[in-house]
Amino acid sequence: MSQVRSGPPDDKTTYRIINETINHILTRQLDGLPLKVLIASVKDILKRDMRKRRMTRFPVSSDVIIAALEFRTGISSETWKARVPDLSNFVEAVWAGESPPIPQVAELEFGFHDDTENIHLGTARRPSVYEEIVLFATDREYDRSGANPELLNSGVPAANMTYGRSVVTLPLAHRTGQIEEAKRDSQANPSKHVIVRDVSLFATDQAFYDDLDARLRAARRNDVMIFVHGAATTLQGALKRAAQIRFDTKFPGVAMAYSWPSIGNIDGYGADYDRVPAAAKRLRELVENVLGRVNDKASVHIVAHSLGCFISATAFEHFPASLRNRVGEVILAAPDISHLDYPALAEAIRIRARRATVYAVPADRALFWSAKFRKKISRVGSSVLLAAHQGVDAIDASGVVRRSWFGDRHSYIFDANLVGELRSVLDGDGQLRARLEEREHNGLAYYVIRP
To answer: What is the separation of C-alpha 401 from the centre of its chain, rounded to a whole number of angstroms?
Structure first.
């Protein structure tokens, strides 16, 4: 005969069950449920668990439930309590099957992300898409000839930086590591594709930094992630990628994109390459302004791809060394950097950032053609041995990169196989990188990601 358990489970077990329950609700795309319905659903599943375990009582405090809500939604308990007074009493009342003490709280929705805008008082509704807010800075000139001149998709350099805010939507069926796109803009469907829905510009740079500071103070982590795109990329493409990175890695800070004036197509690669020095100067000024004009506890992380790595690394040559404590992770993915320039650039990053991580894949076809274009000078992103440098985490990702008819995907770092690795780096937690196998070449350590 089974033994009857009369005592309550420990907090760890309680937290695990509630967390699994909320995760179950979220994965079933029911994240638009009012809080009252959410807690009632948790109660039902906990009761079923009690029967399975033959437990006679299962007291759960409101603090544990709120902690679970905070963990799963990304909205801090302080934010919940500040926006909805007496939330603890409300949770306890609902748990006891009573009417909520504040009627309007029954209409509270919770969001999947940490943006406080995801908390609304109003009619509960099921969301049709996920939303990511991406701030941006760009030195592109206005494209006044297009249907959407405000999108600044021109590849012409502007005299001054323009600052803006975008809302990027992702479909509920979004697959990790992908940017779902329509073949033509006219066929774009929010329920199927990632779309830049709204773009608004700030009237002044101070308005931009004030908005950034407010978002940092409301975020779970006082961190800014700046995405620096590679060649042949439009502003829209940069915003979509920044949104995908934040969504897939569950980055708890503010996402931003620096969009330098790339021509936007592969035919413009030569012109894009010539714009590296000017773009590096603008990126350096952007980072210095972010750290100098928001709260003094904020940190900046840089995620750069391809030619964006050359821009980012060049910017570090002129950063004040005093920024070391505020520049966190620097991620260079598939860097389109000459192996002749790399040692000095890697050293500049090493002494100015808390950690630098470089990803390379030998069969990167885009870098093969780049090397051919640049007088057959090897690119660092095509060999982990070229990327190995004292104080830099050089990682060979070839073992987990999906292959195609055209060789390894140049944007592999954003694929599903590597999102976990990218998230662990942005989290600043080396212990999570269990798939890395350390090796050595000429006295320098490098790593290989095990499949």
So the answer is: 20
CB atoms within 10 A of CB 370: 25
List, in sequence order, every residue forming a beta bridge with 392; answer none if it has no partner.
356, 389
| Amino acid 8: pLDDT | 39
The pLDDT, as a whole number, for residue 111 is 34
Q: What is the pLDDT of residue 405?
A: 46
Q: Is residue 47 part of a domain?
A: yes
For residues 71 and 174, state if they share a domain: no
Using a cut of 0.90, tell me whether the model's pTM lies above it.
no
Q: What angle do CA 88, 89, 92 make, to 5 degrees?
A: 85
Domain that holds residue 52: 11-121
**Both 191 and 174 in a single domain?**
yes
Stretches where the chain sits below pLDDT 70 are 1-127, 143-151, 403-408, 429-433
Give the DSSP per-residue string, 7-32. Answer: SPPPHHHHHHHHHHHHHHHHHTT-TT
Write out pLDDT tens, residues 142-185. Answer: 766 655 655 678 899 999 999 999 999 999 888 889 999 998 88
49-59, pLDDT tens digit by residue?
555 555 544 44
2 in any annotated domain: no
| Whether residue 194 is found in the same domain as residue 328 | yes
Domains contained in the chain, number: 2
Distance from chain centroid for Cα 426: 8
Q: Are residues 182 and 330 in the same domain?
A: yes
- Shared domain for 112 and 141, answered yes or no, is no
Q: How far apart are CA 195 and CA 193, in angstroms?
A: 6
How far, rounded to the nearest angstrom, does the alpha carbon of residue 24 sit from its chain's CA centroid?
22
* Separation CA 424–CA 152 (nearest Å): 33
* Cβ-based burial of 186 (10 A; exposed 0-12, middle 13-18, buried ≥19): exposed
Task: Name every residue whose Cβ is closer than 8 Å to that of residue 241 and which is 6 or more positions away in sequence.
Answer: 179, 227, 229, 257, 305, 414
78 — phi, psi (to 5°)?
Answer: -65, -40
User: Do 169 and 285 belong to one domain?
Assistant: yes
Q: What angle do CA 183, 189, 193 make, to 5 degrees?
A: 70
Tokens at residue 186, please? 């006219």
Q: What is the pLDDT of residue 284?
A: 96
Q: Pick from 121, 154, 185: which residue ends a domain?
A: 121
Contact 240, 259 (CB under 8 A): no
pLDDT tens per residue across span 427-436: 876 545 678 8
Indicate the residue among 121, 155, 185 that finishes a domain. Answer: 121
pLDDT value at residue 107: 35
Domain at 399, CATH number: 3.40.50.1820
